[in-house]
Amino acid sequence: MDAARFASTLAPTLTLAVASVLFGCGADAPAPPPPATAQAERAAPAPIIAPRAVSGSLAFDLVATAGGAALAWGAPASMGGGVRAIALDPEGGPRGTEVSIRTRPSGPSEGAGPTVADELVLGSSGTRLGVAWIASGVEPEVWSAYSSQETEGLGVARSLGPTTPLGRGADASRGRLAMTTRDDGSIVLLRRLADGACSSAASSERDARCARIGRDPLVVAGDDALGAVEAELPEPCAAVLRGALASAGTSYHALCHGGASPGTTLYAIRPALSYAAAFDILPGCAVEALTPLEDGVAVSGRCESGLAVSLVDAMGHESARLSDASFEVACEAGRPSVTARGREGSRRIALLGALSRVEGILPERIAPARSRAAWTGSALLVAAPLGREVGLRRYACRDDVFTRTDLP
C-alpha cells in the first residue's frame, strides 16, 4: 500500500479516536449529563392536591391520620352542596379518590338532606375518622359520619339534631363543633345543642335560657342516645366551644361564657384517675386554639396586648404563661421545632409524632387566620381559606432549613 492510500485509510480512524477523547464517546467514557428537562423533573416538588371550592371559610378541616392526613370540606351550592373528603399521603398528595358523603335523614329532618355546610370539623384516631358539619338554614342541623378505614368508609351521614345559627360579623367563627378522642381510641363529638331552659343547677333565675353542650360518640350506626348534655351555660359567647382534644391521657375542652365580660373555662378530664377539674384560662383574652403537647396542652388566646399562650399540664394546671407571644419554627435534627417567646421567657415545642391542631402555635405567615394545620411526621400541611376555595400548603426541613416545599 502506498503512503497516500495508507494516510487516507487511517484518517477516519484518527478522527474518531480524537472525537472520542474530546467528546467522551469512548466505551469507558462517562455518560453525558441528562437534559435540563430531566433534571428539572427530578427537582420538582412532590404532588400536592389542588385547591377545592368551599362553601365557607369555616367549612373545612384537616387532620393527621395513620396513612398521612385527611381533608374534608363543604361543597358550595353551585356544586351540589354536601360534604366531600379525601385521604392524603404524608406529603399532601391525593391518596385514593375523593369521597362524597351521602345523607340518611332521621328524626325531625326526615325527607330533607343538608344543603350547604357553614361549619365543619374532623377527628381522627389511627385509621378511625369522624366528620361533623352544620347544614345552614333557618333551622341549622348537625350531621356526622364515621369510618374505621379513614375516608373509605365515609359513605352515609346521620342527623344529630338542631343547633344554633352561625354568628354574624365578628361572631362568625368556629364554636359549635369540636372533636376529641377517648383512651380506647373512639372519637367523640362535642356540639352545641339548640338552646333550652336552664336547669336549677345552672341558673337560679326562673325561665332562664342556657346554651347546652352535648356529647356524642361517633359510630357507624346505632340507636344510642344522642346529645347527652355535657354542660349548660346561662351566658354563652357566640362561639361557645373553643376547642377539644386529648393529650397525655387527659381530655380537654374549653367553653366561652360570661356575656359582656367573657371568659373561658378549661375542663381537664383523666378517666384513668377518675379525675375532672375546671380552670379559668387566660382571663380577659379570647381563646382561639388548643394545641396538643407531649405532656399537656397549649391554649392560645387573643388579648388586648396581643397573643398569649398558656401551657397546661396533664392535670389541667397552668405551668407557664407567655404574654405578647410570638412563634418561630426552626429545624433540629431534620425535624421542625417551634419556639414560643413571650415577655416571661421562651419555651421549645418539638413536633415529634403525627399531630393535628398545630395551627395555634404557628406564625401567621405559615398558618393565616382560620387555617388548620397537621404534622404528618414528614411534612407540615396547612389548609387555608383562599377566597371561595381552600388550598393546601406544605412545609418541611430541607438541608436543616424549614421551608415551603410545595412550590417549584
Main sheet: strands, sense, barrel: 8 strands, mixed
Count of extended strands: 30
Which blocks of ≥5 consecutive residues have pLDDT under 50?
Answer: 1-29, 105-111
- As laid out across the biggest beta sheet, the strand order is 2-3-4-5-9-8-7-6
Report the average pLDDT across residues.
Answer: 86
Number of helices: 2
Q: What best-fitting shape do the alpha-carbon axes yield?
A: globular
The rounded Rg comes to 28 Å
Beta fraction: over 45%
What distance separates the N and C termini? 64 Å
Structural class: mainly beta
Portion in helices:
under 10%
Explain the overall architecture.
The structure is a single chain. This protein is mainly beta. The protein has helices at residues 3-23, 36-43, and strands spanning 52-53, 60-65, 68-74, 83-88, 99-104, 117-125, 128-135, 141-147, 156-162, 177-181, 187-192, 196-197, 209-217, 228-233, 236-247, 250-257, 263-270, 275-281, 286-293, 296-303, 306-313, 318-322, 326-332, 335-342, 345-350, 355-356, 372-375, 380-386, 389-398, 401-404. The strands form 6 sheets. An 8-stranded mixed sheet has the order 2-3-4-5-9-8-7-6, with no helix packed on it. Strands 1, 26, 27, 28, 29 and 30 form a 6-stranded antiparallel sheet that branches. A hairpin with a 4-residue loop joins strand 27 and strand 28. It starts with a helix and ends with a strand. Mean pLDDT is 86; it is low at 1-29 and 105-111.
